[in-house]
Amino acid sequence: MARIVIDTTKGQYTNTDEFASGQPGQIVNLMVDEHGTLTSRPGLLLFSDTAGATAGVGGSDDHSIEAMCPFGDDMILVTKGRRFKRMTSAGVSSDITGTFLGGFKRPTFFLDDDGSLLVFGGGAPQRITGTLTPSQFAQGLSRNPTHGAVVDATLVVNDGDTDFMQYSEIAAHQNFVIVGGQAYPGSFRAGRRRDTITAMRALQNRLFCFGEQSVEVFYGTGGQVIDGIRYAFRSEDEPMQSELGAAYSLAEVDSTLWWVDGSRRLVRLEGRGTRPVSLPVEAQIQAFSTFSDCITHNVEMQGVHLILLHFQDSGLTLVYDYVRNLWSEWRLWSLTTADWTEMPIRAYAYHPRWNKHLCAGQAASTGRV
Question: Which pTM value belongs to this model?
Answer without folding.
Answer: 0.84
